[in-house]
Amino acid sequence: MASWSPCSTRSISPCGTPLQLKGSWASDIVYLPHSLERTIKIAKGPLSLGLVLDADADKGINGCKVKNICNKKAVGRDGRVQVGDYIVKINAESLRNVTNSQARAILKRTNLIGTNCNIVYITSTDAKIWRERYHQDSEMQMPVINRLSPKIFPKYYRSPFVARREHSSVEHTESFDSDIVSSDAMDSRNEVPQPIFQVRPQLRHAGSIVDGSEIEKFSYDIVLVSLFLIFLHFFFL
């Protein structure tokens, strides 16, 4: 009996749609849910089931697909299971996510044990209807693709730092222009003639510092230092 385990390469947790399997190895397979399963009981007697199964169909997630049925055996005489149906369980042994050798071993045990057989299967008609319904639902749920032209680089992908610098420079220029306009307006209202040449405040301040008294004091200090040096020279000689 095949059991699910996280380390199994072929086993996956059951889900309703392949969208839940996105990124897995079986994401392109439509999962057939348990609601589609049918259970029958076959009185096989000493006969074998007479089934040939394909465990690789739909990558094994929907059970084993019936490839051939022997008309003289138990399933062929019963007539309810047809070629193309999916066998999900035989006597409580799951046929989902099993290999071909495991499926053959399950059939062999069933043929050897007991005279009755319980089979859980999904008809090919139900599987087809379910797949069509799934494709219709997926087409309705497809996201709308934005087909607008790509954004132009200089306009939409400019650095915000550059934008802030340009904004600050524009504000500074506007404030400077407004100051000039306001000063011109005040001058026009006062109508006081201004001199052509104006002395800068810094130069006025420098001229007031360097006057005659400061020069005389500086000269007197130089003379005192010179006399002191001459005195030291003669004293040490």
From TrEMBL:
PROSITE patterns hit by this protein: PDZ
Residues in PDZ domain copies: 39-110
Protein name: PDZ domain-containing protein
Top-level taxonomic group: Eukaryota
Species the sequence originates in: Dracunculus medinensis
